[in-house]
Amino acid sequence: MGCNREEKPLPSNHNVRRTNKADFQMHVKEKVAGRILKNWKDSPPGTCWMAHTWSLPHLLNNRLHEDLFHLSRIHGPLLSLKLDLKPRVLILSPKMARKTLKQQEYVFSSRTIMEAIQVITYDTASVIFSAKAFEAFGPVHKQQVHGLLKQLYLASMMKNSVHIADLGFVASGKISLKHTFWELMQILGSVNVTDLIPVFKPFDLQGLKRRILKIFWRLYAFYENIIKERLEERKIRIGNIGKERLDLLDVLLDYRSDRDDELKSLSRKNIKGMLAEMFTGTDTTSSTFEWGMAEIQRKPDAYKKIVMELDQVVGKDRFVEESDISNLPYLQAAVKEVFWLHPAVPLLVPRSTNEACEVSGYHIPKGCIVLVNVLGMARDPSVWEDPCESKPERFLGSSIDVKGHEFNLIPFGSGKRSCIGLPLVHRMDTFT
C-alpha cells in the first residue's frame, strides 16, 4: 500500500486504459451492476463492487483493506461502496474520521457485529466497564504481566526462541485448547462474504458458519468446566477470597458478589462472553508484540535507544512498572509507531448510522454501514512524512496518543465504540 513491504504499490496512473478482454469484461460488469445498484441521492463518490462479487474468489483472495485503499486514492477520503442493497461508506482520512466519529459521534455510534464474533461472544454478551471497574483488575493484571515478563526473561537467558503468541495464552489463563483458538483466529481473519453481502447469509458459501458453531460448542464446554472448577476451588479456599485472586475469572466471580457497580449484575453468560472476548483478543495482542520485535530488529539504532532509556530509568534489577511509563518517552514513541505501522485491525469494526446526516455536503442515510481504514490513513503521504518507514522519532514530543483523541492514530477506534480492552492492551504492550 505504497510501501516496499508486503503491500501492493499504488498505480502511477489511475486512468489506466483497459487493453485486454478481461479488463473489458470487468468494465462491462461494473457498468451493468452500477445500473442495478444505484447510489442514493447526494451520495459520496464511489464505485460498484458488485462486479467484483460476481467473481468471489477475487474478492476473498485479496486483502480487503488494500483494495479499499486503492479505491480511496481515486475517489477521495469519503466514498460510497456498492456491494448489495445496503448503503456503505468508507472513511480514509483523519479529518473525515473526526467529522464523523467525533463531531457526529451519536449518529455513528451503532456497531455492526461480524457473524463469527456474534456467535463466539454469545451474541456480544460481554459488558463495558467504567474506569473505576477496571481498577478491580489492577493487581491481577500486574501479576499476569510480570509472569509474562519472567517467561521472556528465562527464555532469553537460555538463548531460546520465543513464540509470543504461545506466551499470550499463558498470560491469558494457561489455555489448554490452543489449537481450537488458532482455528478460531484463522476464521476471524478471513473475509466472510456474509459480512460483506448479507443476502448470502442463508447459504454459508464458505462453510465458516458451520466451523464457527463447532468451535462455539467446544469453547462452551471449556468455559463451563473452568467456571465449575474455579467455583469448587473457591469453596476450598473460602477464607482467602479477596486475598488470593488468580486471574480475571477470579476477579469476575469475586466482585460480582460484593460490589455495587456494573460487576455486581454479571451473569454466567456475561462472564463467558468476557472470556470469549479476552481469548479472541489474544491474536491481535500477540501480533502487535511480534511486529514490534520485528521493527526493533530492523532498526538497531532504535533498539539501542530503548535499551539505554530503560537502563537509565528502570535499571537492570527490576521489571518495568506502570509508574515508569511516563518517564520512558522513546519507548512510548516506539509503541505508537508499531500501532501506526501495523494496526492489529486494519479495518475497524464496522459501524452504522443511527439516523440520516450530512458529511462534507454528502447525504449519509440511516442504517448506512461505515468502514474506517486505519491502515490506509497511516499510509497517506499528505498526512505523514515517510509513511512506509519505521521512525519512532515522529511521535517524540507529540501529543498524539492511541486512545482515540487524535485522529491521526486510532488503532483502537474512537469514542464510545472504541476497543473495550484498550486500557489493558496498551499497558501490556508497553510493559513487554
Automatic annotation (TrEMBL):
SUPFAM superfamilies with a match to the protein in the record: Cytochrome P450 (SSF48264)
Gene3D superfamilies: Cytochrome P450
Residue span of region Disordered: 1-20
PROSITE patterns: CYTOCHROME_P450
Keyword Lipid metabolism recorded: no
Residues reported in the UniProt entry to bind heme: C419
Sorted UniProt keywords: Heme, Iron, Metal-binding, Monooxygenase, Oxidoreductase
One matching Pfam family: p450
GO molecular function ontology, one term from the record: oxidoreductase activity, acting on paired donors, with incorporation or reduction of molecular oxygen
Cofactor(s) demanded: heme
Family of the protein in this entry: Belongs to the cytochrome P450 family.
PANTHER family found in the cross-reference section: (S)-N-METHYLCOCLAURINE 3'-HYDROXYLASE ISOZYME 2-RELATED (PTHR47950:SF41), CYTOCHROME P450, FAMILY 76, SUBFAMILY C, POLYPEPTIDE 5-RELATED (PTHR47950)
Protein's name according to its UniProt entry: Cytochrome P450
Organism this protein belongs to: Prunus dulcis (Almond)
Lineage summary: Eukaryota, Viridiplantae, Streptophyta, Embryophyta, Tracheophyta
